[in-house]
Amino acid sequence: MIEVSGKVKWQSRRGMRELDLMLLPFVDQDLQNCDEKFLADYVDLLEASDLELVRWFNGTEMADTQSRRDVIDYIKKCHATRMGKEGV
User: Fold this and answer.
1) Which family does it belong to (predicted)?
2) If we measure between CA atoms, which residue out of 69, 74, 75, 59 comes closest to residue 12?
3) Which contiguous run of DSSP H or E holds residue 48?
4) Cα 15 from Cα 35, distance rounded (Å)
5) Which of 14, 65, 78, 80 would bridge 19 by S-S if both were Cys, CB 3.0 to 4.6 A apart?
6) Under a CB-based contact definition with an 8 Å cutoff, are residues 31 and 42 in contact?
7) Domains in the chain, please, with CATH?
8) Which of 17, 21, 23, 66 is nearest to 8 (CA)?
């Protein structure tokens, strides 16, 4: 288990509802179960613009690196497992 810094949590707040609904629960519930390499890849993903992230997450464009594609796929998988369980 890794420790997720407040800086990473803050950078995950994007101000776009679509992104916040994916990233904030991921940071709160899933990221600490990943390894240091994944955390570094996630921090790299956060360097992208909101517009790029939205396009990558909704599938209209592919992320520009394999590591970013892998992080996005994992976040989407984690999000899918939470769907319908928001009130639990």
Assistant:
1) Belongs to the SdhE FAD assembly factor family.
2) 75
3) none
4) 27
5) 14
6) yes
7) 16-82 (1.10.150.250)
8) 23
* Long-range contact set of residues 42-47: C-beta below 8 Å, sequence gap at least 24: 42/8, 42/71, 43/8, 43/11, 44/68, 45/71, 45/72, 46/8, 46/11, 46/12
pTM for this structure?
0.90
Greatest CA separation found in the chain?
36
Q: Which two tokens stand for residue 84?
A: 């319908």
Separation of alpha carbons 33 and 30, rounded Å: 6
Q: How far is CA 62 from CA 9, 10, 31, 32, 35, in A?
A: 24, 25, 22, 26, 24
Residue carrying structure tokens 């909101």: 50
